[in-house]
Amino acid sequence: MYFIFDANMPLRLVKGLELLDQENISGTVKIKIDHSDKVVKIAATDAEIIKYAAKVDAIIISEDDDFKRIKSNKELLKSLGVGYVLYRPPKHGARYWEKVQAFIFGWENLKRKITELTKPFVLIVNKKGEIFEEPL
Fold first, then answer.
1. Confidence (pLDDT) at 47
2. Residues 4, 52: contact at Cβ < 8 Å?
């Protein structure tokens, strides 16, 4: 399973999850984690990230919900069969530590849920790490 976090997600969170998951002996699925700034380019557009994710069979993780709202990106997700995970921050806005906690609390459930789905899909992760499927 390959995850690409986009530019809206902190690079340190990406590195931390990658390190933590390496030691996960209970995990049955091999995980690879990257950041779009490193594997696509700095300030890559949504479309560039989607196309890259399709090419390498990756799942995008973002805090940017433009992927859902902009019709062309939504259609691109569907046509290229890309999985997308959106971190939905609380109403007061995203705070770094809340993002970290959400992904730490929900990481195992997120990976499990993804193995049950067929791409394309959209999942929402809230600040408690709870995961919800959203229609694409």
1. 92
2. yes
Could you read off the pLDDT of 30-42 as tens digits, one per residue?
Answer: 899 999 999 999 9
- pLDDT band (50, 70, 90) for residue 29: confident
Tally the domains of the chain: 1
Both structure tokens of 37: 């700034």
Work out the number of other CB atoms within 10 angstroms of the CB of residue 43: 9
Crossing angle (nearest 10°) for helices 11-22 and 96-116: 50
Taking alpha carbons only, the member of 36, 113, 110, 50 closest to residue 78 is 50
Strands (E), the chain: 2-5, 32-35, 58-62, 83-87, 121-125, 131-134
Helices 46-56, 71-80: axis angle to 10 degrees equals 10
pTM greater than 0.85 (yes/no):
yes
User: The domain containing residue 34 runs over which residues?
Assistant: 2-134
